[in-house]
């Protein structure tokens, strides 16, 4: 739904600030500032801080931790003029979002959504849809036929469940494709690689690995490359980590789906600034970038 | 003609919060002499030994080695000066073998990357073990498997093994048998003739008279006097110096202590008590009002007996208190049945060291001091105070940690803890180990009083004088069995030793 | 002869050190940030430390008895998720809470049995349980997040009370979590310093052998401390579930055990047993809470915060050790 | 008179138990899965446990000396990332490796100083360091993943050697990581059981007091064990970096400390010091590695794997305790 500040009970202290043209304190809370994704989002936030009339600050807990994320926002609430949240757990952050909104502070979600909360709009990728996109790419590179293993560093996380759902929906609809298992690799890079190594040995018939995130994608690609299976075993994954880019160039990873994290960070701030300045804002799809060895140069 | 001292202490002072453990002590130790240091518990003897060993640092004064002012900041520095120490408390590495423990100081000096062969550690240790009369002990045996007496011998072996100029022995034979002690004395005399300066701390005044060339007496942290041991010196002289007042010492107790007024029905009955591999078929009674002694050599099984009766370890056979059978395995059942136990290992198993005097006093009888589960602190306070004054226990506050008290006072508090449960039977294991003459006499007085009030007392002890003078009946254990029962005039040193050394097939 | 017992005196001194550290931190923050001293912020800090605090009270018992419990983060997750699932299945409030608490107590019981009769060092027994309980929580929820709301099946009147427990305010002012923490701390203090049971916990932790000779059943005392710990971890987990009101077996309470232990040790308890107080623990918990709060208010970067938290743990315990040492030597 | 000394004999017995457990697991897996006994799979298992194993050898020293080190996961991350960054900055191989190892050794030194002269319990000192070192790693990398490749600036000839260390095969067969593990284990075994230093580690762990009065400088022995631990954690971290070849400060080595400790304790070392062997540790590491591998080969769900790993830790240590106990009593 498009929203406008005219329909929003803005806290008087913020209204005053807007009226006086003072820079606004926009906080962008990310659910784990120590993960791979975070530096990209932070870059976007920093760019917004420089380009827009706002003091944009990138905050969040080290290590995904709902309590930590909530506590930090609670603590800073008196200073926040606008808040963008990417939540560890969709449901856990909803009451807090509602509380912040009730205090007259605009809140939007970005990267991961909280549709059940009172948040104003969402900026980012539709996770289920991005899962479907990955599934379609897999079907594509396998020519509709093969055994697929799904890998994720955190099978229990909401974003993972969403993407897995989308991917399975497409893969299972395709006749020739069998989804063998979902491999939970754990988060340590060594563990990720070992888990993939063991799983591939346990089932040598696997012809496709679909990774749901940044970090098992390069591990899957490395394994394929080191075992001389580049091109035989297809890998579809996410994000544009350095290593992933290398592997796409080396054709060990066929497709990687970018989420434009830096843009997500920038847009999160931008939407809030627009909203506070009276512009009507709406959900923003930051899009998926699909990269193969053909177009990977444009990502570098 | 006096030789030049190896070490001199000049006005050395060591203060602890609230206590001056050494108060401007000046003393010297010379080659080729056995210098005994005696004094009541807490007089400051061990503190002085620890200063010599470098384990603690004095607050003031001067240490002079070979006439030069020196500091001994660590045990290593003291060892470098040729000083070897046997500490009052056992300090062995339980995870290492006898040989390795003996060679520990040697190995401590080696280059860290030097190759090491445990063979040689064992080999090198065996000669010193032989010298101490322990040739039967395999140097590869883990020390954890040894009896306390053997462990103490290993510790002595460790000190003797190094070429000492000065050997400090702090109550080295508190857990040794007479035979083992005699071996130790031989070694000490041998070292003296080799020019070593031996410092000897002991509560056994007879030994001191037999062994020492010079005797120093400490009281309340101060050096009272130092004098040469001559034929005229007697235990009475020593006691007078130590205590500063008259005490009735063990020797002066008349045997009439044994003639107990009236012996009533048995309080404790043991029927065929057995701990596999240690003793079997132990059967005897202890009656109300009597003090029953149990004597025996090390390894005779008498130590485990106390633990078995009290239920600290599993056992077969039957134990009855006042006719009611007591289940095995749980000390609290034994307490509920009316037993109180004073274990030999005062610091390890006896006192709750980190807790206060008051807490120690009431620990076994908590039920009496709680209302609806909550502690009645004023009652605890009152009861503790009663016991402290009854036994003349010296503490600075009821909240003082028991770990800071002297051995005699700790023992009185453990005794109070047992008595606070209103027991019918008191089991004492080595009740006066490491306790000075004055406190010893007080404890014997307390026991006599308790017996005359109808308490049944079982005293297990390695000290023959204690057994002979303070019990009305004696059971002697040898090789895991009761080898004889003595009473009244039969209780003599010769008969006890004869029974104690009888091996199983002879007894059968 | 003065009245106070050893442990209250030792602890009295210790608590003084921690208390001063806390005061210094608070004074510094009051001057350097405008919002620290506001009542809203202080109540926030109180709420934020409550769950940690509830568990820390339990850990105080465990550490004093000479043991340690690493499984508390997993117990927190399993019990909270368990109660949540039952409410979603339409159970009433009391049965669901009881079931969650019983789950926690049973885990504590297993920890206790393994660490006493099982003869395992409690560090290793509870390390194993950390993994097992986490696995059970994952299996139980199939890795799916559990959210307690009426859409999922919770009865509205049950949900309302459940959410009040976690999110409500007593007299519209004091967060309910803080009320629970205060109640647990008060009860813990009474039990530890005023009852025969508390006495036995200290005795067993000081010297298990001497305690046995004194007729104290060391095993049962230790088992009880683990059960108390399990119960309190479950309570904290349930409150967390009621606050959020959602949880996820793969994440909830992950690594919490080290935070809890750190808070208790900062509060003066010893890892070798026999020493500690509930008051000290409460102060330790507040130090950690105020530190986190202060770092955020100061705008310190999250990475620097990690460094600062480690430093404060080390410094707080070091000050404590050094000050006690200089007094006794 | 038999030759072996107490510790090797105690451990000899212990190792037997762990060894049998490993054999049983391997036999079971050989029959129930086709791929377990393949040489590829066995070399895989060997490679997968190597980094854990290298750190476990260090932890064996630390535990025997009576201490513990919780900071190893963070040290692993910081050193690996540090070396990686230097190579990306164009440093040569040797300087970059040296710098990484020195970083690890310095962290070990700090841990050692805090735990001895600082009078902190090592559990708390290294818990603080866990947080500090992780924070430093995050600050150093700014949270960005570090990938060692020529595109980022690594010199090709340096990169080649670096990658060989982590990914190469000796004689085209044995993974280099396994070679490093074997070398570390061999060296560790020689030092621990054959040198005066190893002897001192046992003596200090058996009784620090007895060791001290015998003239052993207990503090320096302990500090050295921490330095060895730090060096080996750094080595493992660098090898991990060379293998992947990338790392990320928020993720690399997270929670590794508990895995390392579990492996060493399963191998028979005691948390109270004085007991342990390198051989036992190697067996413990293999048990954990074979278990993980076997569970995956059996297709056991990841959630059930958590439960199984916890169970195996508890059971392995329990068997060990119970079998030693029944022999000595
Ligand atoms: N670490 C300590 N802290 C406080 N007080 C201490 C400490 N060590 C010893 N003391 C006190 O110093 C005094 C002297 O103790 P010391 O151990 O030297 O006596 P001792 O003569 O060896 O007694 P015993 O015959 O019982 O062995 C005692 O009052 C004792 O309580
Ligand atoms: N808990 C125990 N488990 C196994 N063996 C033990 C145990 N305690 C003692 N022993 C062994 O039992 C035997 C008898 O020991 P006990 O201590 O009863 O002898 P003792 O006559 O009191 O001698 P001493 O007082 O000198 O040690 C010894 O060989 C001892 O090593
Ligand atoms: Mg003494
Ligand atoms: Mg004896």
Primary descriptors:
heterotetramer, B: 508 residues, alpha/beta, Rossmann fold, six-stranded mixed β-sheet, disordered C terminus, C: 329 residues, mainly alpha, ABC transporter involved in vitamin B12 uptake, BtuC, two-stranded antiparallel ribbon, 13 helices, 4 strands, 2% strand, binds adenosine-5'-triphosphate, binds magnesium ion
SSE layout and pairing:
The complex is a heterotetramer, with 1 copy of chain A (300 residues), 1 copy of chain B (508 residues) and 2 copies of chain C (329 residues).
Chain A: H1 12-20, E1 24-29, H2 38-51, E2 54-59, H3 66-76, E3 82-85, H4 90-102, E4 107-110, E5 122-124, H5 127-141, E6 145-152, H6 158-173, E7 176-184, H7 189-202, E8 208-211, H8 216-226, E9 234-238, H9 242-249, E10 255-258, H10 261-276, E11 284-285, E12 289-291
Parallel strand pairs in A: 1-2, 1-3, 3-4, 4-5, 5-11, 6-7, 6-8, 8-9, 9-10
Antiparallel strand pairs in A: 10-12
Chain B: E1 7-16, E2 19-29, E3 33-39, H1 45-53, E4 60-65, E5 68-70, H2 75-80, E6 83-86, H3 98-102, H4 104-109, H5 118-131, H6 148-161, E7 166-170, H7 178-193, E8 197-201, H8 205-211, E9 214-219, E10 222-228, H9 235-243, E11 266-275, E12 279-287, E13 291-296, H10 302-310, E14 316-321, E15 324-325, H11 331-336, E16 339-342, H12 346-350, H13 357-362, E17 370-371, E18 374-375, H14 377-390, H15 407-419, E19 425-429, H16 437-452, E20 456-460, H17 464-470, E21 473-478, E22 481-487, H18 493-500, H19 504-507
Parallel strand pairs in B: 3-8, 3-9, 6-7, 7-8, 13-20, 13-21, 16-19, 19-20
Antiparallel strand pairs in B: 1-2, 1-4, 4-5, 9-10, 11-12, 11-14, 14-15, 17-18, 21-22
Chain C: H1 6-32, H2 39-64, H3 72-88, H4 93-115, H5 122-141, E1 146-147, H6 156-167, E2 169-170, E3 174-175, H7 176-194, H8 196-206, H9 208-213, H10 218-243, E4 246-247, H11 256-266, H12 278-297, H13 302-328
Antiparallel strand pairs in C: 1-4, 2-3
Helix pairs in contact in C: 1-12, 1-13, 2-7, 2-8, 2-10, 2-11, 2-12, 3-4, 3-5, 3-10, 4-5, 4-10, 6-10, 7-8, 8-10, 11-12, 11-13, 12-13
The structure holds adenosine-5'-triphosphate (2 copies) and magnesium ion (2 copies).
Residues 298, 303, 462 of chain B line the site of one magnesium ion.
């Amino acid at each position: 739904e498009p929203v406008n500040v005219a329909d929003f009970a803005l806290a008087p202290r913020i209204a005053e600030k807007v009226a006086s043209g003072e820079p606004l304190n926009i906080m962008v809370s990310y659910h784990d500032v120590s993960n791979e994704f975070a530096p990209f989002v932070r870059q976007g936030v920093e760019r917004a801080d420089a380009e827009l009339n706002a003091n944009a600050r990138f905050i969040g807990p080290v290590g995904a931790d709902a309590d930590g994320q909530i506590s930090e926002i609670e603590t800073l609430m008196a200073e926040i003029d606008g808040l963008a949240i990417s939540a560890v757990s969709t449901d856990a952050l909803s009451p807090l979002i509602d509380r912040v909104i009730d205090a007259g502070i605009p809140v939007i979600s970005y990267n991961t959504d909280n549709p059940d909360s009172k948040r104003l709009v969402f900026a980012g990728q539709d996770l289920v849809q991005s899962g479907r996109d990955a599934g379609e790419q897999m079907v594509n590179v396998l020519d509709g036929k093969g055994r697929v293993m799904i890998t994720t560093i955190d099978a229990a996380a909401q974003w993972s469940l969403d993407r897995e759902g989308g991917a399975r929906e497409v893969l299972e609809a395709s006749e020739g494709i069998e989804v063998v298992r979902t491999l939970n690799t754990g988060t340590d890079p060594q563990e990720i690689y070992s888990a993939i190594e063991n799983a591939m040995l346990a089932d040598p018939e696997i012809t496709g690995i679909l990774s749901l995130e940044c970090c098992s994608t390069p591990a899957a690609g490395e394994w394929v490359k080191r075992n001389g299976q580049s091109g035989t075993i297809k890998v579809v994954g996410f994000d544009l980590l350095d290593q992933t880019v290398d592997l796409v160039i080396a054709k060990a990873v066929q497709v990687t789906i970018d989420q434009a994290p830096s843009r997500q960070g920038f847009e999160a701030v931008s939407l809030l600034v627009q909203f506070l300045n009276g512009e009507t804002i709406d959900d923003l799809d930051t899009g998926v970038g699909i990269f193969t060895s053909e177009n990977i140069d444009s990502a570098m | 003609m006096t030789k030049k001292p190896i070490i001199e202490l000049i006005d050395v002072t060591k203060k602890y919060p609230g206590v001056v453990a050494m108060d401007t002590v000046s003393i010297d130790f010379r080659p080729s002499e056995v210098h005994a240091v005696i004094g009541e518990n807490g007089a400051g003897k061990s503190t002085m030994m620890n200063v010599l060993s470098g384990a603690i640092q004095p607050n003031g004064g001067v240490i002079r080695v070979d006439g030069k002012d020196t500091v001994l900041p660590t045990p290593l520095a003291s060892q470098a000066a040729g000083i070897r120490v046997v500490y009052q408390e056992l300090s062995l590495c339980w995870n290492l073998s006898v040989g390795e423990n003996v060679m520990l100081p040697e190995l401590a000096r080696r280059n860290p990357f030097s190759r090491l062969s445990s063979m040689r550690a064992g080999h090198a240790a065996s000669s010193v073990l032989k010298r101490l009369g322990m040739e039967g002990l395999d140097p590869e045996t883990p020390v954890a498997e040894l009896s306390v007496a053997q462990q103490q011998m290993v510790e002595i072996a460790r000190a003797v093994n190094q070429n000492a100029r000065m050997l400090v022995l702090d109550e080295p034979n508190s857990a040794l048998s007479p035979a083992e002690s005699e071996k130790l004395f031989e070694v000490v005399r041998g070292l003296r003739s080799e020019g070593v300066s031996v410092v000897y701390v002991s509560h056994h005044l007879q030994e001191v008279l037999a062994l020492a060339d010079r005797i120093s007496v400490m009281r309340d942290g101060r050096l009272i006097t130092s004098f040469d041991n001559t034929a005229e010196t007697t235990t009475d002289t020593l006691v007078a110096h130590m205590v500063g007042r008259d005490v009735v010492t063990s020797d002066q107790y008349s045997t009439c202590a044994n003639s107990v007024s009236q012996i009533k029905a048995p309080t404790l009955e043991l029927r065929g008590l057995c701990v596999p591999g240690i003793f079997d078929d132990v059967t005897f009674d202890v009656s109300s009002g009597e003090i029953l002694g149990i004597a025996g050599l090390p390894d005779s099984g008498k130590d485990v007996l106390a633990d078995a009766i009290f239920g600290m370890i599993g056992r077969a056979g039957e134990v009855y208190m006042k006719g009611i059978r007591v289940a095995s395995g749980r000390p609290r059942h034994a307490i509920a049945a009316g037993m109180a136990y004073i274990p030999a290992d005062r610091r390890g198993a006896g006192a709750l060291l980190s807790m206060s005097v008051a807490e120690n006093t009431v620990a076994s009888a908590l039920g009496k001091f709680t209302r609806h589960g909550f502690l009645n602190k004023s009652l605890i306070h009152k009861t503790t105070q009663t016991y402290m004054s009854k036994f003349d226990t010296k503490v600075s506050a009821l909240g003082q940690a028991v770990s800071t008290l002297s051995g005699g006072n700790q023992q009185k508090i453990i005794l109070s803890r047992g008595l606070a449960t209103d027991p019918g039977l008191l089991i004492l294991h080595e009740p006066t180990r490491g306790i000075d003459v004055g406190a010893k006499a007080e404890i014997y007085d307390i026991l006599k009083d308790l017996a005359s009030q109808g308490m049944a007392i079982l005293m297990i002890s390695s000290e023959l004088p204690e057994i002979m003078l303070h019990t009305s009946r004696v059971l002697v254990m040898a090789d895991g069995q009761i080898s004889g029962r003595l009473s009244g005039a039969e209780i003599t040193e010769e008969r006890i030793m004869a029974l104690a050394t009888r091996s199983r097939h002879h007894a059968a | 002869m003065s009245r106070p017992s050893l442990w209250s005196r030792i602890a009295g001194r210790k608590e003084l050190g921690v208390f001063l550290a806390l005061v210094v931190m608070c004074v510094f923050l009051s001057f350097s940030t405008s919002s620290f001293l506001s009542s809203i912020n202080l109540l926030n800090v109180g709420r934020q430390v409550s769950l940690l605090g509830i568990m820390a009270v339990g850990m105080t018992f465990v550490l004093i008895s000479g043991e340690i419990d690493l499984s508390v983060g997993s117990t927190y997750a399993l019990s909270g998720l368990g109660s949540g699932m039952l409410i979603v299945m339409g159970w009433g409030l009391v049965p669901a809470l009881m079931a969650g608490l019983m789950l926690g107590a049973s885990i504590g019981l297993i920890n206790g049995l393994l660490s006493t009769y099982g003869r395992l060092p409690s560090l290793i027994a509870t390390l194993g349980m950390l993994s097992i309980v986490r696995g059970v929580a994952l299996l139980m929820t199939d890795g799916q997040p559990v959210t307690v709301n009426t859409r999922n099946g919770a009865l509205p009147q049950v949900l309302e009370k459940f959410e009040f427990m976690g999110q409500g305010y007593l007299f519209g002012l004091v967060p309910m979590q803080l009320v629970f923490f205060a109640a647990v701390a008060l009860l813990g203090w009474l039990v530890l310093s005023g009852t025969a049971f508390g006495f036995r916990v200290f005795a067993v932790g000081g010297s298990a052998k001497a305690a046995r000779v004194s007729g104290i059943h060391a095993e049962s005392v230790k088992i009880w401390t683990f059960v108390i710990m399990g119960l309190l971890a479950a309570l904290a987990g349930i409150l967390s579930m009621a606050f959020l009101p959602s949880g996820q077996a793969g994440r909830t309470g992950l690594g919490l055990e080290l935070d809890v232990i750190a808070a208790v040790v900062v509060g003066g308890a010893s890892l070798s047993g026999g020493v500690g107080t509930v008051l000290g623990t409460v102060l330790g918990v507040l130090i950690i809470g105020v530190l986190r709060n202060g770092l955020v208010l100061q705008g310190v970067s999250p990475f620097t915060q990690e460094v600062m938290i480690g430093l404060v743990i080390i410094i707080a315990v070091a000050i404590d050790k050094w000050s006690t040492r200089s007094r006794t030597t």
